[in-house]
Amino acid sequence: MISASVVLIAGGVPTSAAALAAPSAPALLHVTAIHATPAVDWVETTDSPSGITAELPGKATVRKATISIEGKPVDARFYGLDTPDGAVGFAVHDMPGEQYPLEDHLQRVLESYRVNTAEPLDSSNVHKTTFDGRPALDARLTSETENENLTGFIRFIADDKHLVQALVLGPEANEKALKAMHEQLLGSLRIP
Q: 81 to each of 90, 99, 103, 168, 181, how far by Cα in Å?
């Protein structure tokens, strides 16, 4: 199964094709998983530079990366866990709105995300929404692999300073549990 850290780092931002193809680009698809034993109670996780918080089903550690987006460096932090039902997590990308007009580009973000993960994902039920007055884009994700079919849910949220993504992904057989995890993650997400 694709772990949360790999999926969150792999393609959640609109990377240029040149940056992906360049040999000097970071090999983000080969990041090791963040493992933790899920807790009965979800634990609040705070991205300290931004103050963005969300609850996760266990204690997650931060993974940091600098990603090149259209030739500009973007700092990103990733928090994720693998659970018995699938992977769950969120990522915060420092993307000032005046530098990256995200409201107009959320669909491009999703497309980049879909094609740049370790296993290409298909998206369906894509629709624009808002999150606390901020522009957002929701999608259902699927992927057919040799070993199993995967499904999940993702939301991208843009504001003046950050791109936030909330994600769950796991075996298709666990879709109901994954949907519940995604709703709980979104219900706990706070962007100051």
A: 10, 31, 28, 10, 12
